[in-house]
Every structure is written in C-alpha cells, then in structure tokens.
Specification:
Helix content of chain A: over 70%
Low-confidence stretches of chain B: none
Structural class of chain A: mainly alpha
Number of helices of chain A: 12
Shape of chain A: elongated
Number of strands of chain A: 0
CATH superfamily of chain A: MetI-like
Largest sheet of chain B: 8 strands, mixed
CATH topology of chain A: MetI-like fold
Oligomer: heterotrimer
Radius of gyration of chain B: 22 Å
Mean pLDDT of chain A: 86
Mean pLDDT of chain B: 89
CATH class of chain A: Mainly Alpha
Number of helices of chain B: 12
Structural class of chain B: alpha/beta
Radius of gyration of chain A: 23 Å
Largest sheet of chain A: none
Chains: A mainly alpha (about 290), B alpha/beta (about 350), C alpha/beta (about 325)
Number of strands of chain B: 14
CATH architecture of chain A: Orthogonal Bundle
Low-confidence stretches of chain A: none
CATH superfamily of chain B: P-loop containing nucleotide triphosphate hydrolases
Shape of chain B: globular
Largest interface: B-C, 39 and 41 residues
Distance between the termini of chain B: 49 Å
Number of domains of chain A: 1
Chain lengths: ~290, ~350, ~325
C-alpha cells in the first residue's frame, strides 16, 4: 500500500481535479447503493409501508414539504430519495453486470479473432462491423421487443451491444502482441496456443480495456435508462433510475417536476463521475500521451 | 560422435502470401474480375550445414531473408518447401506434438531484449518456460528452481534476480535472461537472431564473449544472424551471405573475409565503416536499393545493383558453385572472370 | 577561419525533473565547433548525446529544462533567446537530421511542398526560383527525376531515399550547422555508406559544420574531425579524431574502442567493459565510471575528475589517464 501511495499514479491522481471529483462521485454512489436500505426508513417497494396520504408531497424547501421526505414523494406516496437509492442499485447492477459480461465475451472473441486470423477472424469482425453500423439503442430496442422485458433481458441486450468494442480493441492489441518476440519465444519454448494466449497475450492486452470498461458502465446506465424510459426495460416492480424518470414524466407538466428531475440529476451525476474518472484513467494508462 | 550435422538445411523456401481478405485482393481489370495472390519470396532455396559446436553466421541487409531463415528453422513458421534436419531428423513438416521433443534440442535467442521478455512475467518464470514444457511430471519439476539458479549463474546473473521483472534490468542483462531461457533445456543448437544488434558496443562485447564461452562449455552450435560484419568476423566459423532470399556466397570465415568473390559480398565488406585509417581497397560502391521481394528480378537478383552485370545475368539465375577452400559463390563472374573489372 | 568558433557550448546543464528523481541528462558539457568542422558526439545510450542536440535547437520540453550554461552561435546566446528568435535560427542557421526520417517528414504533404515551405520561411525567393532550388537540391543528394519526385509523398520513398530527402531539406536553407542524430543507424550498411559519403560531400561543398551524434565509433572515425565522448551526461574525453582513436587517454574511450570486434584480435575474447551504466538519477560520488574502470583507485571514489589536457590534442577527465601505447 505504501508502494501505491508513493506511486506516480497516485501522485497524478492527487493533482487531477477531474479524477478526484469523478472518483468521489463514484464512491458516493457506491456507498448509496450498498448502504441505501439503511439510510432511509421507507422501503419504496413494500406496499405496506406506503401511505397514499403522502402522495405528491413537494421537496422539503417548498410550501407543503414534509421533512420526512426531503426530495418529495410520488403518486403512491413513495419517498423520491428512497426511490433514487433503490433505483441506483438496479441501474448500477445492470451497468456493472452487463459490462463484465460484454468484457468477457468481447475479449474472448477478440483474442480468438486476432490470434487465429483467417476465416474465424473474418466472421467475428464482420458481425462486429454490421453491429457497429446500427445505433446501439436501436439494436437493444429490437432485441428487447423480440425477447420481452425484464432485468435479465436488459442484460442480454446490453451485452449483445457492448461486446463489440472489446472484441475490436483486443483483436487489434492481439495482432500487435503476437508479432512480439516473447510470443515467438513461447512458440519456440513449445507452449501450446491456449497457453500462449493465456500467459502471454491476455495479460498484455488488458490495460486499454480498463478505460473502456469504466466508461462503458456509464454508457450502459444511460442505455438502460433509455430503454426503461421507452417502456421496454426493467419491470415496474424493479424501477431503475430510468423508469423513475418515465414514471415522473407523466406528471412533469402538471408542476410535479421533482419525481422525474431528481432521478435525472442522479443519473447525470453518476455518468458524469464515471466519465471524469474514465478520462483520467485514459490519460494515465495511455503511454502515448505521456 | 557421428558425422551427422547438428543442423542440415536443404533447399529451404519460405513464401508468405500477403494477407488481406477476399475483398482486399479482388481486382477488376480489363480481363474481368480476378483474385490477386501476391506472395513475398522471403527465402528462395537456401542450403547449409552446421556441425556440432560450430558457429555459422548468415549476413545480409534488412529484407534479405536471414531472419526468416532463422525463424523457419526454429519452426515459428512452417516452411513452404525444403528440409530442415536436426541431427538428421527432418522437422520441416512436423506438427505441434512432434515438435515438442525437438524444442529441447533447438532453442532461439532474439534480437530485441525489450520485446523478447514478457513484461508481466518474473525472470524465474521466463527462464523456466521451455523447461516446464519438457518436464511434465511433478518429480522432474522439483529440480526446476535449482536449475534456474544454476542457469542464471551461468549467464552472469545471481539468484536474487529470479524474482524480479524484466523492466528492472538493462538491455544487456535482459539478453542474458534470454540466453538462460534458451539454455534451460540444454539444446545442441541455438538460433540467435541478431542477438547483439540492439546493444551498446561495450555490452555487445560482454554478450559475444558469453556466447563463445557457452559454446566452449556445452559444445553448442549456433546459427548466428547478423547484419554486422565485424561481429560476424569475430564469432563465426563459417559465413553465408544472403541477398533477396538467396545465399549468394558461403565460405569459411577466413576465406570469406580474405577473398570475397561475389560482388555483393565485396560491396558489403567495403561499405562497412571501420575505426582503422581509411584503407586503400578497390571499393565497390553500390547504387540503388534492394528490389521488392514481391516481384523478384529475372536471372540474378543482384543484377539491378551490380556494377558488373551484363545480359547473361538477366537471362540466367547463377547457381552456387564450388571455387575451392570450401567457398561457394553464385555469380556468373566465376565463369567469365575477364569481366571482373569496373 | 575566424577566431570565434561557429558554435560554443559552455557548461551546458539540461536536467529532467521526473517523478522518480532528477535526471541530469547533460551535466556540464562544453565544446566548440569551428566553421566547416565536423564534430562527433559519441557515447552509449543514456550518455546524454541526443539531449545535447535538442538543447542546442531549444527543443527541450517539460519536464526537461536547461538549468545552466551558454550555447553561443556566433557569440549569440541561444539559451537566453526567445522562442521567436529560436524559430528563426532553426532551419535557417541550424538544421537537424534524425535517425528516423519519418519523424521529420509530414506524411500528409508531398516532399516538394515540405521543401518549398522551408524556402518560403527562410528565403525571399519567388515560387519559380524555389521550385528550381528544390529540384537542384534533390538532384544533389542523388535523387533522379527530381522534378517528378517532388510531387511524391514520403511513403513512396524507401528508407534510404527518405533520409536523402531529409538531408536535402536540412541543407536547403544553407544552414551553417547541421545536427545529425544517428542519421544512418536505421539504414543498411551499403545505404549507410552512400548517405555518409553524401553528407560528407555536401557539407564540404556548402562549407557547413556538423555535429554527428552517434553510438558508432567506426562511423564517427570516418566522418569527424574532432570527437567528444560523453558518459553519464559529462564529457569524459575529447580531441582530434585520429589521436583519440589511436591512443585514447580515458579508460572509457579505450574500453569502447577495444569492445569493437576487430580483425586483429578476433581469435581472442573481446575485451569488454564490465558492468553497466549506473542509474543516472543516482550517480556515485567521484568519477561516474569508477565502478567499471580497471584503473580506479581510492581517489576516484572521492574526487570527481575534471577535463585536463593530455597527450596530443586530447583532454580527458581522469585521475589516472592512459599514456600512448599503454593498455587499459
């Protein structure tokens, strides 16, 4: 740990405002997501704890506000703050799991395409190219309408959209990696291909993926929010931040703005934090910019 | 001891098709649609033998195919044609499983001390890599840590270096690690692809001395690839000169440096800079540059830069012929020596 | 020949302040070059020879900084000059040739356009005269069909031809000093000899001076009038080429020369300099070379040797210099 504190990475981190703000936002969300249920009295999905009498209470600083619900309540009397904490859980869960799945599948396909080349490479990369020529939200929409809604379906749709960027990056690094002499040395040493890929290629193509993966969590949160907003995302029983916005949107122009604006601000801050930190990582991990 | 050479290469050829998918190679011309199949003629029929404990050098300029010869013999590539006999056993068309035991008899040292070691492996894992592929049983592997310490000592490093990563070493030390890796399986033949050309001159001398010592100690044979004639002159027993994938001259070291016969060899020797006062030799100065290996010239490949070339050279490709003292030369001047004047 | 040297570098110190410590890449280097002279700057990697070249051109970027010293071109101190003044000096008075020609050629512009730009910046010739000058210059560096080749882009030339183009551009504004940093290291030996011959001829014809930065003693001994040897950012020896090659007085120079494989002693082992270059962020007290030096004594660990005149034209920084004919 002292090694890390003395490292150049940490030194630069301390001097980068965007890195500190970004990671602070990410840490705040991580805390909110993990400790959320203990921070608020109300479980917004426990119908028994809701009271219709509390519906559409404005935020606490407006006339009629109730100090019990500092960001106000929605039509069912749900605390908006509690909904955001619970919703961020679902949003982040979806973003992270879809990222891990995309990264695993994309890396694997990229390694195979780059290492073996030939027809395998052509097939994988042409599929990736075709996929890239459509907006990802369109592909996700199409898939969702084909397989139906639900958290698992959202994960499938996001993974189907997200693997391409890893596959392309990993394929590129793999191509340059297999030209390196240590890969040739491993061949001369008699290592079988799967060992060469695992021991020599994989560890050396991972670094650029850290940046992609970080930023992708933000992108996935946004795509999921869009899908939910369009009504093909998560079910009403597990509202993510996007679904909260949609639910509030219906009454937005009746002056009940807080039910959708606050979840929107939450998404914005989450994605903003992730992107700020991702940018810092990109500058740090890309030796070309140094 | 037998008379079987350690390495016997016969008419080795290596052609690389230029990559690109189906669409990249499609050409639409006057004759309709056709598929282009460009091929790089990297090695075009090279033959030589290396005895046990002997050092053979291949010299030539970049793109002459010398590194390809090395990597084809080491079976990083699969040769297009020809034979590669290791102690009499032709391994040219061996598959992965058949090659594994051969890997214990033939190892390789690489050019770039930075790129030839995986930055994410510790030195002990790097050095042990070929050895672990040869020893699958847990019993045999018990010895590996001791063997690594021994190997590191052999190349002038110590046991505590084993736990470090490559970036903690200088270029010369990294090259020593690469040599230890090659030695780990006690091979009889080491293929060294420009092993000192990335090193500073004082470090280069250390590595060359080390390689010579190891040859004397283990009776190693080397195939030594280099573009540097002074290094070759120092280390080699016999020298082959390559140009555009052909062996144009091949001779014992002393014969080659005293009496180079091929115009290309003569040009190489006179172009090499030296710290000696300018010598008064009949310098052969080459004009122009090496032609593309995609489209070899007809006849003699060197004729486009050769100051002596005449029409026969464009018509007829010269074959290597014996001129005595173990020297062979591929040049029409041998038949028509009267043309050998500027 | 005037009394004032064309370029005088006095006590140049260029340091790099990196995260892991200050790298004194150049630490107290002094030398002079007269009109029409070729000086070889020799040393191993990490010796600081390239940094000297960049310092002269004012091309040291953060975290590097010229901490002290003077670089006098015709008596004018370039260290104190503004960026605008330096821009006028670069290209017109001093030009540079790098190891990799692609670093100095713009891949997006034709060779002709890049040559024309130099002339437009540094001369007041009209378009026609500039064109003629470019053609003439390309021809003089041995590129045939020059008028046609002006339209070609850098990737359409081979490595050797590209380096010729770079040399043509470097010579175009008739600079008085050319800094050539490993100009032939990436080239094959037959191409190298062509390029070296060309550079020698062009410099003699144009009366320019040159600093030839290289690790290759053989190249420098064929090209240079004087040689300056750097080790760990300091000058350890300098003198006329033949004196320095034939009878160096510094053990490091001796070691470098003896490390070159040579036809005379080839059956023996090569003599080698033991050990490696010390970490430049953490140099030992006293002489930087003492850990690798066969002549080192107690004094070398205490006192750093200064450059002092030795036999012939040589001066070197060594407490126990070699006499002519003496082995290390």
């Amino acid at each position: 740990m002292t090694g890390f504190l003395a490292s150049e990475f940490f030194h630069n981190y301390r001097r980068s405002a965007s890195a500190i703000i970004g990671s602070a936002l990410m840490a705040a969300f991580a805390f909110a997501v993990l400790a959320g249920p203990f921070l608020v009295a109300q479980d917004p999905y426990d119908i028994a704890s809701l009271n219709l009498m509390d519906s559409y209470k404005p935020p606490v600083w407006l006339p009629g506000g109730d100090p019990q619900f500092w960001l106000g309540t929605d039509g069912q009397g749900r605390d908006v703050w509690a909904s955001i904490l619970y919703g961020a859980r679902i949003s982040l869960f979806i973003g992270l799991v879809a990222m891990v799945a995309s990264c695993t599948i994309g890396t694997l396909l990229g390694l195979i395409a780059g290492f073996y080349g030939g027809i395998v490479d052509s097939v994988i990369m042409r599929i990736a190219d075709i996929q890239l020529s459509f907006p990802s939200i369109l592909i996700a929409l199409f898939l969702m309408s084909a397989v139906g809604t639900g958290v698992d379906k959202v994960l499938i749709a996001l993974t189907a959209v997200g693997w391409v960027v890893y596959a392309r990056t990993v394929r590129g690094s793999t191509l340059s990696e297999i030209e390196k002499e240590y890969v040739q040395a491993a061949k001369v040493a008699g290592l079988p291909n799967h060992k060469i890929i695992r021991k020599h290629v994989l560890p050396n193509v991972l670094t650029p993926l850290i940046v992609i993966a970080t930023i992708q969590v933000g992108t996935f949160v946004l795509i999921e929010a869009s899908l939910s907003f369009l009504g093909v995302g998560v079910p009403i029983t597990q509202p993510s931040l996007g679904l909260l916005i949609k639910n509030g949107f219906d009454v937005l122009f009746s002056g009940l703005w807080w039910t959708s604006v606050f979840p929107g601000v939450a998404i914005m801050m989450l994605v903003f934090g992730i992107n700020l930190f991702g940018d810092f990582l990109r500058d740090e991990l890309n030796p070309r910019l140094k | 001891m037998t008379d079987t050479p350690m390495l016997d290469v016969r008419d080795l050829q290596m052609h690389f098709p230029i990559g690109g998918g189906f669409l990249d190679r499609l050409r639409v011309g006057a004759g309709g649609v056709r598929l282009d199949n460009p091929v790089v003629h990297a090695v075009n029929g090279v033959s030589f033998k290396i005895a046990r404990g002997e050092i053979m050098a291949l010299v030539g300029e970049s793109g002459c195919g010398k590194s390809t010869v090395a990597k084809t013999i080491a079976r990083i590539y699969t040769p297009t044609a020809g034979e590669v006999r290791i102690e009499g056993e032709d391994i040219a068309s061996y598959g992965f499983a058949e090659l594994l035991p051969v890997r214990a008899r033939m190892q390789m040292i690489f050019q770039d001390p930075y790129a030839s070691l995986n930055p994410r492996q510790r030195v002990r894992d790097i050095v042990a890599e070929p050895l672990l592929e040869q020893t699958k049983g847990a019993d045999d592997r018990k010895d590996v840590p001791r063997r690594i310490t021994e190997l590191l000592a052999k190349v002038g490093l110590n046991a505590e270096h084993a736990n470090r990563y490559p970036h903690q070493f200088s270029g010369g030390q990294r090259q020593r690690i690469g040599i230890a890796r090659a030695l780990s399986v006690t091979p009889g033949l080491i293929i060294a692809d420009e092993p000192v050309s990335a090193l500073d001159v004082s470090i280069q001398a250390q590595i060359l001395n080390l390689m010579k010592d190891l040859r004397d100690e283990f009776g190693l044979a080397y195939l030594f690839i280099s573009h540097d004639l002074s290094v070759v002159n120092h280390i080699a027993d016999q020298v082959g000169v390559m140009y555009l994938g052909f062996l144009v001259e091949h001779a014992p070291r002393d014969v080659l440096f005293a009496r180079p016969r091929h115009p290309y060899t003569r040009a190489l020797l006179s172009a090499a800079p030296s710290i000696k006062e300018k010598r008064e030799t009949d310098e052969i100065v080459l004009s122009g540059e090496v032609p593309s290996a995609l489209d070899l010239p007809s006849g003699c490949c060197f004729r486009t830069r050769c100051p002596f070339a005449w029409e026969r050279c464009a018509r007829e490709r010269p074959a290597l012929q014996d001129v005595g003292d173990g020297q062979t030369v591929a040049c029409h001047l041998i038949d028509e020596p009267e043309r050998d004047r500027p | 020949m005037t009394d004032q040297p064309l370029l005088a570098v006095r006590d140049l110190r260029t340091h790099f302040h990196t995260f892991s410590g200050t790298v004194k890449a150049v630490d107290g280097v002094s030398f002079e070059i007269g009109q029409g002279e070729v000086m070889g700057l020799v040393g191993e990697s990490g010796g600081g020879k390239s940094v000297v070249g960049f310092s002269i051109l004012g091309l040291i970027d953060s975290p590097g900084k010229i901490e002290a010293g003077e670089i006098l071109l015709d008596g004018k101190n370039l260290v104190a000059a503004s960026e605008a003044e330096l821009r006028k000096v670069r290209g017109r008075e001093i030009s540079m040739v790098f190891q990799d020609p692609m670093t100095s050629l713009n891949p997006l512009h034709s060779v002709g356009r890049q040559m024309d730009e130099v002339l437009r910046l540094h001369t007041d010739l009209d378009a026609k005269a500039r064109q003629a000058a470019c053609v003439e210059m390309l021809e003089s560096v041995g590129i045939s069909r020059a008028a046609e080749r002006l339209k070609a882009y850098p990737h359409q030339f081979s490595g050797g031809m590209r380096q010729r183009v770079v040399i043509a551009i470097a010579l175009l504004a008739r600079p008085r000093l050319i800094i050539a940093d490993e100009p032939t290291t990436a080239l094959d030996v037959t191409i190298q000899s062509q390029i070296l011959k060309l550079m020698r001829a062009q410099i003699a014809e144009k009366g320019a001076s040159m600093i030839l930065i290289t690790h290759d003693l053989a190249v420098v001994s064929e090209m240079a009038d004087h040689i300056t040897v750097l080790y760990c950012g300091k000058v350890v020896e300098r003198g006329r080429t033949r004196d320095l090659i034939n009878a160096p007085s510094h053990p490091y120079t001796r070691g470098l020369i003896d490390s070159i494989p040579d036809t005379v002693n080839r059956h023996d082992r090569l003599s080698q300099i033991p050990g490696t270059v010390p970490d430049i962020r953490n140099l030992p007290k006293g002489c930087n070379f003492r850990d690798r030096c066969p002549r080192a004594q107690a004094l070398c660990a205490e006192v750093e040797p200064q450059l002092e005149p030795q036999h012939g034209t040589l001066s070197s920084a060594c407490h126990f210099p070699l006499k002519p004919g003496e082995a290390a």
